[in-house]
């Protein structure tokens, strides 16, 4: 899989203006260590933030920029920061980086951490200054061993240079940063489950309220942000609000750029930093090169396994939250997957739902029992042993596991692709239902609210 920043026609100077996340990347893919990072204006934004901006100025700048979370939820970052208490007596605060990138078909944060670890550290340093957080943790997916190695080295380099630790840049501000590798659970991507895991507890989501900004890790005010989100902060502080807003395409309600990608049977699978508002067709045809010879695009997901399927005619949608929302699903992580015409949708959905069922924390009944139920039905349909009413049962589960019906967003994300697959490819599901013959009729088990 290629990790590509920008096209060869871009000069370094031009790329710095249009690709704030990736312009520093090396052609050989090797990590950028401290000396090279600083030679490419690294930590210049941090020095500006410490010397010329108050903590409230940093928060307001990020808020006015319109930066939104890049982990999939898209919550405004400045608003989230503003939820942290203003009470100066609450001087123990934490900043957590959500690097538990376990969404299937998503690898954008991995690239940033492996190749530009100091960009993340600088983003966390500026953010910690704004939030008055004295300690930070990068909660890293345990399988990302290379990222862990590079991050730990970069943390040591920053400490030796006086960019982490005590009295940073002579400001009197202290910030300690630690890399914490998780045990490998998808649910840790939910911020309160991440907090529980960091504390050494079972990774179950917490009831909200209270929100982490009030009661987070070890009961103290806590802010949790995604890797890509934090990596945007230095460029916003360094280049200003107007510049950041100018990066997106006309018509986009989201500002800045986004790491987007395409995988599947495409000619040029990869990852690119592109402006919000680019069409999915440009991403698919101009960057991913379209489908490989001999394959036809059947459908696609815009941003990870937890987003709904879309058809080829939806490729003209703009890649931002509202643009993808107009065609019936969520942008998610922005890393799309092409499904070719050789794939059976029932088998694909059975595979997905097995993953989601296995990764459920088991806390609430609809998710704990509903997802395995969907797997059981999909297995039967896949082998041609589906019963009349099974499709209706699956659609019932899609409703009962939807938004607002479960303790966290795991189940709604799990059933969104299932509902869209039945909507667009119902005939493939119907093909797995046994025909009704005399004497074969059985009672159809349709889910009820009590049973779900």
UniProtKB/TrEMBL annotation:
GO MF terms, alphabetically ordered: 4 iron, 4 sulfur cluster binding; FMN binding; metal ion binding; NAD binding; NADH dehydrogenase (ubiquinone) activity; oxidoreductase activity; quinone binding
UniProt keyword annotation of Chloroplast present: no
Entry keywords, A to Z: 4Fe-4S, Flavoprotein, FMN, Iron, Iron-sulfur, Metal-binding, NAD, Oxidoreductase, Quinone, Translocase
UniProt cross-references to PROSITE patterns, sorted A to Z: COMPLEX1_51K_1, COMPLEX1_51K_2
SUPFAM superfamilies given in the database record: Nqo1 FMN-binding domain-like, Nqo1 middle domain-like, Nqo1C-terminal domain-like
One Pfam family linked to the record: NADH_4Fe-4S
InterPro entries: NADH-UbQ_OxRdtase_51kDa_CS, NADH-UbQ_OxRdtase_suF, Nuo51_FMN-bd, Nuo51_FMN-bd_sf, Nuop51_4Fe4S-bd, Nuop51_4Fe4S-bd_sf
Signal peptide: none
EC assignment: 7.1.1.-
Domain NADH-ubiquinone oxidoreductase 51kDa subunit iron-sulphur binding: residue ranges: 346-391
Catalytic activity of the protein: a quinone + NADH + 5 H(+)(in) = a quinol + NAD(+) + 4 H(+)(out)
Source organism superkingdom: Bacteria
Cofactor: FMN; [4Fe-4S] cluster
Gene3D superfamilies in UniProt: 3.10.20.600, 6.10.250.1450, NADH-ubiquinone oxidoreductase 51kDa subunit, NADH-ubiquinone oxidoreductase 51kDa subunit, iron-sulphur binding domain
Function: NDH-1 shuttles electrons from NADH, via FMN and iron-sulfur (Fe-S) centers, to quinones in the respiratory chain.
Subunit structure: Composed of 13 different subunits. Subunits NuoCD, E, F, and G constitute the peripheral sector of the complex.
Similarity section: Belongs to the complex I 51 kDa subunit family.
Full protein name: NADH-quinone oxidoreductase subunit F
Protein's organism: Pseudomonas coleopterorum
